[in-house]
Amino acid sequence: MNTLVLTAHPNLASSSVNRMWFNALSTVEGVTTRDLMAVGGPEMQFDPAVEQALLREADRIVLQFPFYWYSTPPVLKAWLDQVLLVGFAYGPGGTQLHGKELMLVVSTGGPAESYQSDGINSFSMLEFLAPFQQTALMVGMTYLPPFVLHSAMSRDRTRLNSQ
């Protein structure tokens, strides 16, 4: 299985968890990793033909990002807007992603209990991530259960490196 990991962190070098994931996944055979900030630059401009070619080669697409203000960092939204185009991902002839898998790998700053109806954030992570599930359905992908690491910034670095 070919896996494409798209990492969307505004400053990957300053991240502990997302950088560790990116570095670890970059060494796995069959996995292609892309730091979207490095690819798109500060202007967050992407070449749809290049990105779409990578998507065609992948069986599974992983979107890896820190959860920012109940959403993704802007670079991932820019990538989605510029790459998942009509005629490629949806609409007439837009079948290039059919049958592929979509998975989210997300880090949050808050604890798991804060992401529920009676928590400080009022909604579950599944509810917050529902737009990605709908995107997967719209473009004919299989949406896999997300992997969410809560309280990422307060994790013990020794334990993180051993897991």
Automatic annotation (TrEMBL):
Record-given protein name: Flavodoxin family protein
Single GO molecular function: NAD(P)H dehydrogenase (quinone) activity
Pfam families attached to this UniProt entry: Flavodoxin_2
Cited InterPro entries: Flavodoxin_fold (IPR003680), Flavoprotein-like_sf (IPR029039), KefG/KefF (IPR046980)
Sorted UniProt keywords: Oxidoreductase
Keyword Oxidoreductase attached: yes
The Flavodoxin-like fold domain, residue ranges: 1-156
